[in-house]
Each structure stands twice: as structure tokens, then as C-alpha cells.
Please model this.
Amino acid sequence: MTLVPRYLVAFHPKRVSHHFVDALVIGGGIAGLRATMALDPRLTTLVVTKDQLEESNSNYAQGGIAGVLGADDRFEDHIADTLSAGAGLCDREIVEMVVREAPGHIRQLMEWGATFDESEGELLLGREGGHSHNRIVHALGDATGQEIIRAMIARARKVQSAQIWPDTFTIDLLTHEGRCRGALVWNERHGKTYVWAKQTILATGGAGQIFRETTNPPVATGDGHAAAYRAGAELMDMEFMQFHPTVLYIAGSSRSLISEAVRGEGAILVDAAGVRFMPEYDARAELAPRDVVSQAIVDRMEKTHHPCVYLDLSALPADAVRKRFPGIAKRCREFGIDIAVDRIPVRPGAHYMIGGVKVDEWGSTTIPGLWAVGEVTSSGLHGANRLASNSLLEGLVFGARAGEAVSAAALEQPDEYIPLPIENKPVEPPSEQLDLQDIRNSLKSLVWRAAGVRRTATSLRDAARTLDGWDRYVLAQQFPTSQGWELQNMLIVSRVMINAALRREESRGVHLRMDFPQQDDAKWKIRCGDVRPSS
Ligand SMILES: Cc1cc2nc3c(=O)[nH]c(=O)nc-3n(C[C@H](O)[C@H](O)[C@H](O)COP(=O)(O)OP(=O)(O)OC[C@H]3O[C@@H](n4cnc5c(N)ncnc54)[C@H](O)[C@@H]3O)c2cc1C
Model:
């Protein structure tokens, strides 16, 4: 691990251009956008996104946002469901705060123009695994994220003066004398640029791309996790990656998510022989929490020697199914599957990164001047397993809070337009060019095998040894493009995750150790952190 460099590329204040802002927001998903909207308009703000602004995990969210809105629902029930899913590791105060703030944020999204599905003027509230009540608001049937992001971008463009730089890769966070001072970014227009910021908000989303099977889009390579780690921020709960149980498994298709809401509406899971199996594993059957369903599916796949199981919606009214899930119906139709009639082949895939940069209730990290919000964080909300539809909510709550806190901090700081003496020296380029795609594919397969749904000390240790070899020649280099930086970030995040998974010698929530199958409260009812060792 001491191989991890502080900075990925060479840069020097005399050779790289400079840009000064009050607040830098890295990431334009729900958390970054919500933070931006909470920033005081007197501040100059820059939002950078790696791809187009619309391309984020947020945009692909299907099921919806959880919040207590139904007449028979209570905050205490949403809190209890979240704590129960989190398997003893949630921070109760954070859970209470997020759950109580949820309805206000959902109503605010509606004021900003997000249209959620209704019937006769009432919000339609869906149900997902682990929830005791119907409390999930959704939009366009199964395209909730797309509708929220559309409304938030429109609102931000109308009322916010923030500058937005799309297609801008954040390579590293800049630190000086123990404070975060902004970030080194790269885009085709300006090349490398120092963005000096009084306050920096990290909102870079998840890391699903380190796994071969994942629901996450290509942007989710854990860049923010890795950059924060290199900068010395504490990461937490890094062993906890949530696997979504039902990811479309068709050769040649992208690994599309088949929302939990499908099971909420009554779909059942059957094995290759057509046998419904979930009741054998959990009394809640198909609506058990995701870890339980994922682990049951893997077990069933092994017992039936079959590479997937199937979702069966055939007992539900066909027209209602196609209307409720238009996106999923369309995607499956492209592969000749009618979701109302045919069984849908599915298996688990990496879905939500629970671990991340340690933050408090305002999104403050362990580095002064650096804040973090959304999926890149570990706030204590999810514990050892995230309750479905609590993550868009987390992005809203923490985004708004961090935006407020950053405004207060930045408004107090005087303007200074002096670049700090932060530089990184070039290293000798190697004589042989690496096939980066080949290493990336091998890494994804390795992490899927070793740190997927089932883990053992042997598989994790073997993976760590393989990573040692790759680290020696990949982390030592300075690459000129984002393909290399992403690979380096993925290697670092994989390593931290594998070490954390090895350390936790028990099974809890999404972390299943086949060699330690029991939950061990006496020893492991604690959250664990990781900090980059100084080299
Ligand atoms: C298919 C799918 C369905 C889901 N369904 C639901 C659901 O129904 N309900 C729910 O609550 N959650 C759901 N989730 C999870 C939820 O969508 C995410 O947890 C949440 O959207 C994360 O928001 P975020 O703002 O933290 O990150 P994201 O939305 O992922 O945004 C990350 C941003 O960071 C930028 N970025 C990343 N790296 C860099 C870099 N190096 N430089 C510059 N910018 C960078 C990206 O360009 C992007 O703008 C789903 C996730 C997926 C993948």
C-alpha cells in the first residue's frame, strides 16, 4: 500500500494554468447538484463532471426515493427499517436526521418541477425490499433518477450562477499544510488546471466498475474514493459493497438493473427448474433485504449448476406490468423477452458502494476544507447494508447540508489569488506501453471473484497478491490520459476494499465471509476506517 503515490501526474505552478473559485463541486449527480443549489449565490462556484452532466449513477436510478408520506406510515418505521437493514452498524442519529428530513426534500423536488407518479392527485407510493410500508416515490414508472436530474439541472441553470465544466476529469485533490485547497483537473480545452477553491465538495459517486458484474455506468470508477485516500482523508466501511440481486443476465446486453420495485409489485424468483426458492431462505421471501436475496440467488445458482435465476411476473396483470415498468419492458423486448409473459434471466451485480469518505452530519471530512456528499461517502446512514431507495435521499439531505456549511465557511474566508507551492515531479516513462484495457478487464474479474457476493480469506489473500504485482508497474507510472488515471484509481479502491474485507472476520449485512459465516457482535459491531499509510 505504500506504493500509492500522493499525486498521479506531474504538475508545476509555472507550467499549469490557474483558476480561482470560492467553492468547487466535483460531481454533478444528485448529491453534487443539491449541494450546488444550497450554495450562497454570492459565492463563485465551479461544478466539474467527468462526462456530460447528465451521465451519473443518479440518472439511472429506477425505483425511487424513500420518505414517510403515506397516512399510515411513521418516521419510527422508516428509522426501524433502515436500522434493521444496516445490521447493527448504522449511526442512529444520522438515520433519524435523514428520515425526518426526507419528506421536505421530496416536496422541494416537486416544487422544482420533478413530476412523480400519481393516481387521482395522490402520490403513488411503491414498496421495496426491507421497507415495512409503501413509501417510495417514483417517476416515469421506472426512470426516477432521469426525471429528478432533469428537473434539478433545469432548476440549477435557471437560478444558479454556477459555472459547469463537463468532460473534466478531477485527477487529484490539492492539499497544503493540512487543508484541502481545491483540485487538479484536466479537460481537452485547458489541459491540466489548478482549481484553487476555498472549500471543495467531493460528490463523485460510486465504484461499481471495479467489479465485472455491475449496474453502474462507466463513470463509476471510484475516482473520488481514491483521490481522497491519496490526499489522506479517512475512508470507512470499505468492505461493504451492496450487490443488487436482480441484474439482467443476457449475453451481449449491458448489465441493466431490474428494479426491486418489480418484486415489490409481486414478481417471484424461480430457479432453472421453475421452482420458487426465496421462501426457503427468508420469511420475507422476495422482499427480504438485498443481501439476503443476493446470497440466496448465488446459493441457488450453485445448487442448480445454472448461471442465473429468473424473475417471473406472469401471475400479474400483463398490461399493468408493461405500464408500470416501461423502461425495463423496452430493454427486455430488445432481447426478445416480454416481461409480462417470459421469465427474465437475472443474477447479482455490484450496485451501491456503502463505504467511502468518512463524513459527519454536515458532510465534513477528516481534511479541513474538504467536504463529501452522496455515494462517495460513508455517513453511517447505511451501516452494513443500504435500505433500498435511501441513497438518492442521502444525496439530497447531505448535499443540502454540506452546501449550507460550505457557504458559511467560504463567506468568512478572504479572497486570495496566490497559487500555493504544490507540485509533483515527473517520473521516467517505461519503455513498454501497457495494455490498460487488458489490466482493467483482469482487475474487474479478479475483484468479482475475490470480493463478490461470497468471500474467503484465501480468495482475498490471493487477490491481494495479484494486486501487489499490478500495483508495482501501474501505480508507479504517470499516465497522460483518463484511461490510466481511472485504472490507477480502480486498483487503489480494490486494494482498500480487499484489505477491509480480509480484516472483518465475520459475516454482516452485504459482507459474506464463507469462512466466518456468523455475525460476531462481540468483536465486530464496529465500523472500521482506513487511512493511506505515509510512504
Ligand atoms: C441502475 C441504478 C439504479 C439505482 N436505483 C436507485 C433508486 O431507485 N433509489 C435510490 O435511492 N438509489 C438508486 N441507485 C443508487 C443511486 O442512484 C446512487 O447512489 C446516487 O445516485 C449517487 O449519487 P451521487 O450524486 O453521489 O453520484 P452520481 O450520481 O454517480 O454522480 C457522480 C458524479 O461525479 C462525477 N465524477 C466521477 N468521477 C469524477 C472525476 N474523476 N472527475 C470529475 N467528475 C467525476 C460524475 O461525472 C458524476 O457527475 C441506483 C443506482 C444505479 C446504478
